[in-house]
Design brief:
Length: 157
Amino acid sequence: VTHYDRGVKFPIFVDWELISYTDGVSHVRLELTPGKHIICSPAEKNHYADIDVEAGQTYFIYHDYKPGMWKPDCNMTPVTEYETDRISRGVSVINKYLPKVISPEEKQEILDLLETKKGKKRADWKKAKLDYEQGTNDVKEFIKVVKKDEFIPAKYL
């Protein structure tokens, strides 16, 4: 869920496959198999969420715009069951807007843009993957961990 209306597109990769993007007030809905997954959003800094999914549960991660030094940046923040105001905001976005779903053509367009070398390149997702796999220090501060038991209870949805 993103709740900051800036109109900047941030790609969302799950297990290193481009799934969709967020821009403005929007959300992406993922149905993941139980177990561990990595969500990555490359921007000025590469942001990651290690998530351990339990079957039948719902998890929220806020994916918000933040100004970067040289180019737009984002932030990924897991939401806990105790953050009822953030859950309410997320549910309102989900109920008001359709999830961002991209066509194969849009997916290729986004990947092409990420590969471009003519000043338009906003993010390097291949480097993000390599940095994550190597566990470099500058990556560790941008990894958020979402545990199995950090789901949003159904009563809030």
